[in-house]
Amino acid sequence: MDDASRPIGGPAADAPPAAAAPAPVAPPAPQPPAPPRATGESDDDVRRRDRLLASLTLIAGLGLALATPFALKAGAEFFLPVTAALVIAVALVPVLEWLERHRLPAPLAALTCVVLFLGAANIALAAIIVPATQFFRLLPERIGRIQMNIAPLLDLYSSLEKYIDKTAMRLAAGSAQKMASAAQATTVPPRSLVELIATSAPTVFVQVFFGTLVVFFFLSGWTRLRRRTITSRSSFDGAMATARVIQDVVDDTSSYLGTITLINVALGLSISAALWMMGMPFPLMWGGIVTLLNYVPYFGPIVAALLLALGGLMVFSDIWVALLPAAIVIGAHLLEANAITPFIVGHRLTINPIMILISLSFWGWVWGTPGALLAVPLLIILQTVLGAAGKPDIAGFLFEHGTLDHQKRRERDP
Q1: Neighbour tally for 353: CB within 10 Å
Q2: Could you tell me the pLDDT band of residue 327, with boundaries at 50, 70 and 90?
Q3: Would you say residue 143 has pLDDT above 70?
Q4: In terms of C-beta density within 10 A (0-12 exposed, 13-18 middle, 19 or more buried), how is residue 350 classed?
Q5: Which of 32, 94, 143, 346 has its CA 20 to 30 Å from the CA of residue 48?
Q6: Burial of residue 237, with CB atoms counted within 10 A of its CB: 0-12 exposed, 13-18 middle, 19 or more buried
Q7: Is the pLDDT assigned to residue 104 strictly greater than 60?
Q8: Model pLDDT, residue 270
């Protein structure tokens, strides 16, 4: 087609098509500021510095972990009452919150919780200590009956008979001397917690008084302490994580101790009723001993069965009747541990048995019998904190930043 046939004013055939409008370009995302570095410091120098900091942190952490048990054991007079008081206070927080919801001021609610706990502890110890003191004073007089009862068993192990006789005589002589000296020092056994503290060493009185003050002041300032801890976090996520950890620790600890206490008390009352029907003296004392020792998993019921076997041998003439109280304790414990407690507690507070044994051996080595009683509650608190805060970065949870600031390094070096 020639030039004359083209429409006037039309676009030329060889003209390029109109270019499309450029798409708007999003502004670049703001990059976090790079960590400060020294002048002339290269990336290799930064990595070497971070490795050095990581090594120093690891060495310091290992040293702290190795030194902590020995420090806790050496300072047991301070750390034991503080730890026990904090565990008791955490367990009493639901009662405190219930009283505060009913318009009771925080100091008065805390004082009410402390009085209720001391009253329950006083009743429990008085119900155990007074009859136990009277009962076991008869041990030197009942050595002959115990030997007569276990004579059929000794016939099966004649090679051990002389050794057991010598051991029993030594125990009888030692017990008689101890009882005589105790009778000269005081003729009346302690009838309450106050008398027990008054007749004990001054250190025990100071520790109990100090622990009571810790419980009271912790509970009286609990609401303010929790609010201040949550609001002091610099981010909303950190505040929510802190609130979740605090609530989980309180719920799990109080739920475990409250549930286990009800189960142990019911177990002790059941055993007391069975022993009363058998004619065993001081059945409530034996039920209280079983209740108290059942707080120590695995080992506590074994000790309770051994004590009841000794008590049965002191009371009954027939060996099979004498061993029946221990058999009752073992059967009741098996029923409680395998059917009742798992059904009531459920899977929320299920703890690995290996972790329980490790906790029992550790705290028992550090603080003895009180440490064994605190082993499971402390394990629950530690397990709850680790589960809610996250295992890999406890320091990051506590300080809201990783110790080596891994997130910033990942953003800097994708």
Answers
A1: 10
A2: very high
A3: no
A4: exposed
A5: 32
A6: exposed
A7: yes
A8: 92
H or E segment at 89?
helix 76-101
Are 82 and 212 in contact by the 8 Å Cβ rule? The answer is no
Whether the Cβ atoms of residue 376 and residue 351 lie closer than 8 Å to each other: yes
pLDDT band (50, 70, 90) for residue 138: low
Check: CB of residue 85 under 8 Å from CB of residue 209: no
Distance CA(380)–CA(400), nearest Å, equals: 24
Taking the C-alpha atoms of residue 315 and residue 151, their distance in angstroms, rounded to an integer, is 16
DSSP 100-153: HHTT--HHHHHHHHHHHHHHHHHHHHHHHHHHHHHHHTTTGGGHHHHHHHTHHH
Q: Which residue has the tokens 């002191």?
A: 314
At 185 the pLDDT is: 44
Determine contact, residues 306/323, Cβ cutoff 8 Å: no
How many other CB atoms are found less than 10 A from the CB of residue 354?
8
Q: Binning pLDDT at 50, 70 and 90, where does residue 318 land?
A: confident
For 351-362, the pLDDT digits (tens) are: 778 888 888 888
Let me know the angle formed at the C-alpha of 363 by 361 and 364, rounded to the nearest 5 degrees: 60
